[in-house]
């Protein structure tokens, strides 16, 4: 669906970037890929400072998105682009994890960060949906909801960077990124439905006590 012609051959964006990459983007890829950790944590700490009662909303929505993602992983196991490039379409159960294009970040900075992280991966066939692509959407939703203009702009930039570098580093196909966005939407929607029901139930109890 997302292939294009390169030297009279159809290639995916992942295949193109595997051949055409540069050191600047390699370093940026690692920075953006790591940003999913401090962004939601920082936002949660901010909400904790502003309103303790609502500070757990983002973590709870985050948890729901993760649960949905892991359910889909095991219902629909899918190989990432680096696996297809290395092993083709053969299913190899004991395949170790790989940092793929993120290894170039390690090489650029002469460290072993992503190599050590992805070697411990427990499930290689967990490309669809891309939870890395889902996470900034959750943070963005709550930042917009609380009208944090600068925070929303920064998180939007983070989201775009993560989506691009998920493909650039051969960790995900474009469809995986789209799946991650839908996964985030599903988790947020479920959270809002449950939260609205809890508020309605609480209001009902308060009214019942008032009548007594």
UniProtKB/TrEMBL annotation:
The keyword Glycosyltransferase does not apply. It is a multi-pass membrane protein. The chain crosses the membrane at residues 30-49, 56-76, 124-143, 148-167, 173-195. It is found in: Membrane. Keywords: Membrane, Transmembrane, Transmembrane helix. InterPro entries: Aur1/Ipt1, IPC_Synthase-Related. Residues 19-189 form the Inositolphosphotransferase Aur1/Ipt1 domain. This is Inositolphosphotransferase Aur1/Ipt1 domain-containing protein.
């Amino acid at each position: 669906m997302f292939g294009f012609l390169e030297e009279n051959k159809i290639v995916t964006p992942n295949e193109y970037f595997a051949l055409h990459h540069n050191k600047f983007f390699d370093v940026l890829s690692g920075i953006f890929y790591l940003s999913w950790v401090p962004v939601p944590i920082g936002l949660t700490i901010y909400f904790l400072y502003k309103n303790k009662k609502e500070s757990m909303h983002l973590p709870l929505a985050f948890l729901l998105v993760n649960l949905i993602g892991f359910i889909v992983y095991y219902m629909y196991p899918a190989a990432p682009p680096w696996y297809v490039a290395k092993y083709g379409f053969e299913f190899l159960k004991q395949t170790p994890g790989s940092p793929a294009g993120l290894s170039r970040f390690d090489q650029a900075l002469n460290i072993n960060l992503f190599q050590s992280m992805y070697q411990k991966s427990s499930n290689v066939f967990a490309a669809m949906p891309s939870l890395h692509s889902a996470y900034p959407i959750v943070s963005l939703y709550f930042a917009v909801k609380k009208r944090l203009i600068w925070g929303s702009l920064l998180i939007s930039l983070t989201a775009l960077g993560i989506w691009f570098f998920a493909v650039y580093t051969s960790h995900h196909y474009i469809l995986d990124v789209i799946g991650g966005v839908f996964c985030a939407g599903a988790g947020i929607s479920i959270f809002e439905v449950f939260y609205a029901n809890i508020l309605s139930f609480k209001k009902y109890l308060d009214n019942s006590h008032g009548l007594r």
